[in-house]
Amino acid sequence: MNFDMPKAVFCGLALIAAAICFGPGSVSANAQGITAETILKSTNTITGEKIVYPLTGEALVEVMIITILPGEKTRLHRHGVPMVAYILEGELSVFYEGLGVKTFRQGSSFIETMEVNHFGENTALSPVKVLVVYAGAHGSKTVLPAKK
């Protein structure tokens, strides 16, 4: 049997969607063999900003897995739509302009800042894999250049 990465990713995302759709509020008290664990619930980003959704365009959710090799980092940027991150493997340090650094390890989740310039860096010795979910709209940019 061959490993099919696209199918594996699809199955993983389907499980995440099922967890969202069939979360604690929708699971019958009599259901057996089903558990739901909230891993993140907030009205604010990691830097305390209120979460604001784009007001124009048809709703669009984009899900991806980002892999950053040891010693590599993203460019300085910010986000145009709300973004949730979940560390699947490894460790990610995010440097927030004027606010310092926060380090996230496997199993950590956070809602990324939208207005504060930041960059992520893999300061560990193994790759970091981050499941990212953008909640935006058609025509909205997920990543924006840093503010000057």
Protein architecture, described:
The chain is mainly β. The protein is globular. It folds into 2 domains: 1-38; 40-145, Jelly Rolls. A 4-stranded antiparallel beta sheet has the order 1-8-3-6, with no helix packed on it. The protein has a 3-stranded antiparallel beta sheet with strand order 5-4-7, with no helix packed on it. It has one helix spanning 5-21; strands spanning 59-68, 77-79, 83-89, 91-96, 100-105, 109-111, 118-121, 128-137, 143-145.
- Total domain units: 2
Outline type: globular
Mean pLDDT: 87
User: Quick one: CATH superfamily of the largest domain?
Assistant: Jelly Rolls
- DSSP E strands, number: 9
The run of helices and strands is HEEEEEEEEE
Largest sheet: 4 strands, antiparallel
Please identify, by name, the CATH architecture of the largest domain. Sandwich
Q: What is the first-to-last residue Cα distance?
A: 52 Å
Spatial order of strands in the largest sheet: 1-8-3-6
Q: Compute the number of helices.
A: 1
**Proportion of residues in extended strands:** 35-45%
Under the CATH scheme, which class of the largest domain? Mainly Beta
Helix content: 10-25%
What structural category arises from helix and sheet content?
mainly beta
Low-confidence stretches: 1-15
Radius of gyration, CA atoms, in whole angstroms: 17 Å
CATH fold type of the largest domain: Jelly Rolls
